[in-house]
């Protein structure tokens, strides 16, 4: 792993100057290979702590969930109301639907099928985050964000040093599920929750969620551990090929039949 020179670090910082993430940028190394990537993460992460990862294929993306990215309160409220509408239509169609009053379970279903929610996807696997950084927008720089979820939750309740789950922490989680689309810097902070791994996709991706309250975007004021590692566009293709060689590819991460077929067609090179 080659350490970036002062000139190289300055160049990276200029390229990422417009990144909206309000947290430090790690620019000490230019990641050109998978071995560079794991060496950087080995140097950054405390082995005794839990970390989550999120890949952005474009540096312009924010750490805000889909329902809270709309510019008006009315639009955000409409987006949030779609989960209850979805329940009416999908309860009979799902093989194992959540219980009627399992609001978090239904929100997770909505997230899986592409409806806007208060949930933001993370993964416990750094390589999975790197895949999502590199698999699209090949002409754009990307990044991998790193978060300590337990530290995030300690800022909400110092007596609960853990990642929350609905069985143990319903009293903490439920108020978030009833919130409207108004924002407030003094409102409830973002929390980290373990989802139910009830689909092959979320299990393969080792998925996790942050659940966002009135403070829509996650930043260093809520999580001092938050940092991001730049992934330059000129190395995305190399990194994606190396991930594929070690089994982290489209068919692994997106196991649905259409993605398996896409992988087979691409592999055949016809």
From TrEMBL:
This is FRG domain protein. SMART domains: FRG (SM00901). InterPro entries: FRG-dom (IPR014966). Residues 47-145 form the FRG domain.
């Amino acid at each position: 792993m080659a350490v970036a020179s002062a000139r190289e670090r300055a160049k990276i910082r200029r390229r990422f100057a417009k990144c909206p993430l309000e947290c430090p940028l790690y620019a000490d190394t230019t990641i050109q290979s998978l071995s560079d990537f794991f060496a950087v993460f080995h140097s950054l992460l405390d082995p005794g702590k839990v970390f989550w990862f999120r890949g952005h294929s474009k540096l312009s993306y924010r750490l805000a969930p889909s329902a809270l990215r709309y510019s008006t309160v009315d639009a955000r409220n409409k987006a949030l109301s779609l989960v209850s509408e979805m329940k009416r239509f999908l309860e009979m169609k799902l093989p194992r639907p959540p219980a009627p009053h399992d609001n978090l379970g239904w929100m997770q279903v909505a997230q899986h099928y592409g409806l806007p929610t208060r949930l933001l996807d993370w993964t416990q696997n750094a390589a999975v985050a790197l895949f999502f950084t590199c698999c699209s927008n090949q002409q754009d720089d990307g990044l991998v964000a790193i978060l300590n979820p337990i530290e995030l939750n300690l800022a909400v309740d110092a007596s609960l040093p853990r990642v929350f789950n609905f069985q143990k922490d319903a009293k903490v989680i439920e108020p978030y599920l009833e919130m409207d689309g108004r924002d407030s810097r003094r409102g409830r902070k973002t929390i980290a929750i373990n989802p139910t791994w009830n689909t092959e996709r979320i299990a393969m991706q080792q998925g996790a969620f942050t659940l966002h309250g009135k403070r829509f975007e996650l930043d260093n004021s809520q999580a001092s551990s938050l940092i991001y590692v730049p992934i330059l566009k000129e190395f995305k293709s190399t990194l994606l090929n190396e991930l594929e060689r070690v089994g982290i590819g489209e068919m692994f991460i997106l196991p649905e039949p259409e993605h398996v077929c896409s992988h087979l067609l691409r592999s055949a090179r016809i």
